C-alpha cells in the first residue's frame, strides 16, 4: 500500500479544522435564523414520535437494561444514559417520515445531530445557546457534504444514507459541543466513520429503518466522547485507499468526489440546503404529491375520475419508492409512492392521520395504488443529485383528458423554504399530540430565542414530559 494511502487526510483534517474553529460570529444571520426553524421542526417530529409503537419498544427495552438516568427521552418522563437517549431520540425524530432532508446530500440531518448534541448539553450544563447553535451548525454542515461526495449512487447501491452519512454529522456536532480541538475532532470522525452502517432493505416494512438515525447519532456521540479521552480513530477515514469510507461504500476508487467534502466550508452553507416535509412520507414522494395537488387546483378530479397516473423520475426515485406496493407495515406504506398517491387521491391529505395500521392493507388503497406507474427518466437522472426528487407526472382521466405537471422539489424545499408560521403550525400540530399546550409553547419560544439563552441544558428539561402538564 502506498505511503500516500496511509498518511493523506487533508479532507478529514479540513473538516476537523472547520468544526473545531467555527465561531458563532462567523455564521451568517440567515443561517442561524434557518437552523432555529430546522431544530424546531425536528423536535416536533421527535415529540410526536414518542408515542409510536417502535419508540415505545425501545423506551421499554432500554429502561429495563439501563439504570443510568442522566438524559431525557423527549416527550416522555423517562431518562436514560446519554448514548441510549441519543438512540431513542434519534429514532423518534425519524419515527414517522416527518423530519427534514438535505436532498442533494440525501440525509435527515436533525435526526442525527440534535440527539447527540442535546445529550452533551444535558450532561455538561453551562453550554450557552450561542455555543449550542454553533455546534449544531457544525453538524448540519458536514454530513450533507459527505453525501454530496458520495452521490446518489450511494443509496442506489443499497446503503441507507441516514445511517451511513449521519455518523459524520453527529460526530461533528458532538465534537464542537464538547469543544474538541482539531486533532481530537479528526479522531471523533474516525471513530464514528468506522461505525457507519445501515441497509435500505429496511424500507420494505421493518421498524429498524426508524432506528437508523438514532444509531447514527449514538455512534457520533461515542466518537466525540471517546476522542475527548484520547481514544484514537481512523485519521484518514474518508480518504483511505483501502478500507476508507468513500472507497468501501462506493466499491471503487473513483465513484466519489473528495473535493466536495470541504468545498465552500465557511462560505457555502449546506444548512441552507435542508428542506422540510409537509407530508408524512419519504421525501422522494413529495414532488409527485405536489404535482397532483397543483393539477387538482387547476382542474378538480378525484380517484373515481382517474384512469391511470404515470410518474417519470430519477433512478433513485425508481429504486427508493417506485416498487410495486405490498402491505408490509407502516414503513413500507410511507415509503411507497403508489400507496401515497392513492392515499392522497382518497383522503385529500398525506399526514399523520392517514397512516394507521388498519389502512396498510386497505383493499381500496391497494386498488388505487395499482393505477400508479413509476418509470425511469434518464434525462432526470442525468441532471444529478440536486434533481433527484424531480418528477414529471402524467394523469390520464377517464374522460380522455391528459394532465401533466413537472415539479423539481416538494413544498418546503431549500429554494422555496417554508415560512416560520407554517413551521410553527406543524410543530404545534405534532407536539400537541403528546404534550400540553403550555409546555409546547415554552419549547417553541425557547428554541426560537435560543441565541439569548444561558444554558442549553434547559432545552432538555423542557422536552421532558411533565406529569402535571406544567
Quick tags:
8 strands, single chain, two-stranded antiparallel sheet, alpha+beta, 470 residues, four-stranded mixed β-sheet, 23 helices
Chart the SSEs and their pairings.
Layout lengths: L2 H5 L2 H12 L7 H21 L3 H13 L5 E2 L6 E2 L1 H12 L7 E2 L7 H14 L5 H22 L2 H4 L4 H4 L1 H13 L3 H12 L14 H21 L16 H6 L23 E2 L10 H13 L7 E8 L1 H7 L8 H6 L1 H11 L9 H4 L2 H7 L2 E5 L1 H5 L8 E7 L4 E6 L12 H12 L5 H12 L8 H7 L7
Parallel strand pairs: 5-6
Antiparallel strand pairs: 1-2, 3-4, 5-7, 7-8
Account of the 3D structure:
With 470 residues, the chain is α+β, with helices and mostly antiparallel strands. The chain has 23 helices and eight strands. Strands 6-5-7-8 form a four-stranded mixed β-sheet. Strands 1-2 form a two-stranded antiparallel ribbon. A two-stranded antiparallel ribbon has the order 3-4. A hairpin with a 4-residue loop joins strand 7 (391-397) and strand 8. Helix 7 (129-150) runs antiparallel to helix 10. The longest helix is centred in the N-terminal third of the chain and has 22 residues, at 129-150. The protein is globular.
Amino acid at each position: 500500500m502506498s505511503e500516500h494511502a496511509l498518511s493523506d487526510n487533508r479532507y478529514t483534517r479540513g473538516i476537523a479544522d472547520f468544526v473545531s474553529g467555527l465561531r458563532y460570529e462567523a455564521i451568517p444571520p440567515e443561517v442561524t435564523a434557518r437552523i432555529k426553524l430546522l431544530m424546531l421542526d425536528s423536535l416536533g417530529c421527535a415529540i410526536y414520535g414518542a408515542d409510536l409503537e417502535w419508540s415505545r419498544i425501545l423506551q421499554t427495552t432500554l429502561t429495563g437494561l439501563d439504570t443510568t438516568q442522566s438524559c431525557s427521552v423527549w416527550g416522555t418522563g423517562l431518562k436514560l444514559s446519554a448514548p441510549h437517549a441519543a438512540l431513542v431520540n434519534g429514532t423518534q425524530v425519524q419515527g414517522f417520515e416527518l423530519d427534514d432532508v438535505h436532498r442533494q446530500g440525501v440525509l435527515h440531518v436533525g435526526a442525527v445531530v440534535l440527539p447527540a448534541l442535546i445529550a452533551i448539553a444535558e450532561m455538561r450544563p453551562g453550554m450557552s445557546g450561542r455555543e449550542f447553535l454553533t455546534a449544531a451548525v457544525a453538524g448540519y454542515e458536514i454530513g450533507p457534504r459527505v453525501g454530496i461526495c458520495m452521490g446518489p449512487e450511494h443509496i442506489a447501491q443499497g446503503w441507507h444514507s441516514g445511517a451511513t452519512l449521519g455518523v459524520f454529522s453527529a460526530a461533528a456536532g458532538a465534537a464542537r459541543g464538547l469543544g474538541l480541538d482539531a486533532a481530537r475532532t479528526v479522531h471523533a470522525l474516525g471513530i464514528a466513520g468506522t461505525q457507519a452502517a445501515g441497509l435500505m432493505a429496511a424500507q420494505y416494512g421493518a421498524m429498524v429503518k426508524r432506528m437508523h438515525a438514532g444509531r447514527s447519532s449514538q455512534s457520533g456521540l461515542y466518537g466525540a466522547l471517546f476522542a475527548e479521552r484520547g481514544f484514537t480513530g481512523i485519521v484518514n477515514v474518508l480518504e483511505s485507499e483501502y478500507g476508507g469510507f468513500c472507497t468501501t461504500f462506493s466499491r471503487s476508487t473513483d465513484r466519489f468526489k473528495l473535493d466536495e467534502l470541504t468545498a465552500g466550508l465557511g462560505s457555502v452553507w449546506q444548512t441552507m440546503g435542508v428542506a422540510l416535509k409537509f407530508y408524512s412520507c419519504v421525501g422522494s414522494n413529495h414532488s409527485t404529491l405536489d404535482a397532483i395537488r397543483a393539477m387538482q387546483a387547476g382542474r378538480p378530479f378525484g380517484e373515481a375520475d382517474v384512469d391511470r397516473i404515470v410518474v417519470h423520475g430519477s433512478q433513485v426515485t425508481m429504486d427508493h419508492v417506485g416498487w410495486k406496493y405490498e402491505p408490509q407495515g407502516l414503513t413500507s406504506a410511507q415509503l411507497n409512492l403508489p400507496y401515497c398517491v392513492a392515499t392522497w387521491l382518497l383522503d385529500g391529505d398525506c399526514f399523520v392521520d392517514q397512516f394507521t395500521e388498519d389502512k396498510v392493507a386497505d383493499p381500496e388503497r391497494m386498488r388505487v395504488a395499482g393505477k400508479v406507474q413509476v418509470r425511469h427518466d434518464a434525462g432526470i437522472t442525468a441532471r444529478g443529485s440536486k434533481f433527484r426528487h424531480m418528477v414529471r407526472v402524467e394523469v390520464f382521466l377517464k374522460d380522455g383528458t391528459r394532465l401533466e405537471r413537472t415539479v423539481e422539489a416538494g413544498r418546503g424545499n431549500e429554494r422555496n423554504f417554508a415560512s416560520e408560521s407554517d413551521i410553527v403550525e406543524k410543530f404545534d400540530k405534532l407536539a400537541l399530540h403528546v404534550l400540553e399546550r403550555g409546555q409546547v409553547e415554552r419549547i417553541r419560544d425557547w428554541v426560537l430565542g435560543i441565541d439569548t439563552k444561558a444554558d442549553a441544558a434547559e432545552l432538555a428539561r423542557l422536552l421532558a414530559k411533565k406529569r402535571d402538564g406544567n
